Amino acid sequence: MAFKAQFFIGSACAALLAGAAVAQDAPIVQPGAPGESGRQLSAEEASRIASNRYSEADVRFMQDMILHHFQAVQMSALVDGRTGNQGVTDSAARIDATQEDEIDFMRTWLRERGEDAPDPANDPHAMHHGGHHTMAGMASPEQMDALAAAEGTQFDRLFLELMIAHHDGAVEMVDALLDQR
Question: What is the rounded CA–CA span in Å between residue 143 and residue 162?
Answer without folding.
Answer: 8
